[in-house]
Amino acid sequence: MKARIPLLVLLALLASSYLGARQLPGALSFTDVTSEAGIYDPAPGSHGACWADATGDGFPDLLVTYNFSSGSPRNKFFRNNGNGTFTEDALARGGIASEGKSTHGCAWADLDNDGDYDLLEGLTYDATASPFPNRLFRNDGTGYFSLTTPAAMQAQAWPTRAILAPDLNADGLADVFAVSGWLGAGDPSTERNELYFNAGGLAFSADSTSPVVFAPIGEGATDVDLDDDGDVDLVACNGSGSPGVFRNAGGHFVTVDPASIGLTRSCYSGATFGDVDNDGDQDAVLIHHYPSRVVHLYLNSGGGQFAYAGSEAGMAGFSAGLADLDNDGDLDAVIPGKPVVYLGTGDGRFTAGPAIPLLSANQDPRSIAFADYDADGDLDMVITAKHAWPLLLRNNLNSGNWLKLRLLTSQGQAGGFGANVRVFAAGSSRLLAMREARSNFGYLSQDDPVLHVGLGSQSLVDLTVTFLDGSVVSLPGVAANQVLAIDGSTGIRPPPPGPPRHLSAVVSGSAVSLQWDVADSGGPPTAYTIETGSTPGAANLAILETTGTATGFSTQAPSGNYYVRVKARNRVGVSPASNEVLVTVGNCAPPAGLTAVVTGRTVALGWAGTSASYLVQAGSGPGLSDLAQIVVATTSPVFASVPPGDYFVRVRGNSPCGLTPPSNEVVVQVR
Is the pLDDT of residue 656 over 80? Predict the structure, then answer.
């Protein structure tokens, strides 16, 4: 066991004076971008916050869960637009809004090892306030979901809080653990937690005998390797007593008396783990509530034994967040409801840093989760609150080197939950930082699974990544300020492919042949996805998946107009779309070459087309048809006595496929 002098300086800790907070000039600061980024939503009840790139475009998306006693709660999915803004469209994504149901927990996890993030929702109650089964949604790879809750999970209905997706038996498949209730020992004695083992193919079996099922625990839970033995242990809070600690013993769990490992204080809502003293093991920050909210810091002495380092009262939130916010390699701390960031010094101590926008105690702040949502190399954060809206804080840091790591196990599981990453100064054994991939922490929180490591002034480092199956990837001389994709079986992987180029289409009768060129950026593709829609940008007609690297595709199509684009994909991700082409099959082509001749108040139009009749549309602005819509049976109609004005005119054909897309638009000026 490593010697340790107890540190009674928990976050200098939480010198709670707002005026005493210091901010380094030109260094770390935060801006509330909730409204401008599209996150603002006045509906109360936000609880869980979970980040992951669900849409496969390289930018982390955000799911916020909602639970409230009034109204009709639903979850919110904020799709990252890649430009610093978000679009909330949970209702269009296959049921993940869970309308009319109260949800607490959430976890993004690759449950079927296909390289994308599926979704677990920890449901609490239905509209009648009765417990409701948790839900599993399978991701199609583009952020659209189908409800595929396994039968074993459908058979159980408990008031879930936290839900986790670690690989508990190291078989390469993510399992599921869910915590019921919020009081722990104070909940009904008949209440049960849930534990499911993944058998592959999204089939799960329930374990009804494990001690974690009967344990008196509630609120938040964390999957963490407490004792550095290479497997995933579980820690959960208990609002009415000591936290629940469960040591993994080959995929089975042994209940550990927390006092026997040095965890002598209570944990009501959230347990957060991270290496705050940079010695290569997991330290702990616990949040308790009664008689007032208190934060406790414990430092890991090695082998899963902990030394108490201090406490501070006056908290407002349900859990602490640990993240390297200033890119110096040391974990910093944020506690919802406290007005400052606490900057880690790398030895288990913290100093009060810059101020952050504040949620008040009466707004009841809950979870906190981190992601580099704007892809500028530093970590931003979201904070939820039961009586307020989620708060999105952008990190304005403009210094410090960094790395971001996308992990994939040798079994194909995105995120690599349970993997341990150690970063060393190049050419030495000096540990700069240790990070662990996990599915949840604290109170209902999930950071972006892409691991972020600040490097300070280090421009070159050595990496060691150890996966749960024992595979180790060692990478010497890694340059800073890049995103690396690391595969447990092959080492560094190429990045996702870039967008295909120069898409074109040739139509002969009902036969359609597409051709495109390989992207000139990104990693090599292994296959392509062809999206077809009835309007520009849509994919409502067909999504076709190729199985090889050929840059062409032929098919038969019924008469119609199709908007087509192509995306490349490989094991790492999916590219942006190629250029879009309009493919016309049959006698469905839009009119072409629209012209207008104005003589006084007479307007003569002309175009080329093969339709039996046409719809002439005129509007007061581009694309509008608010002034006139006239059906004609000729390609050269003449309109007399047209009132003076400016008209934006286009023509659409009435074809066997329905109304064609519009022709080119002309501006007709009548004076």
Answer: no
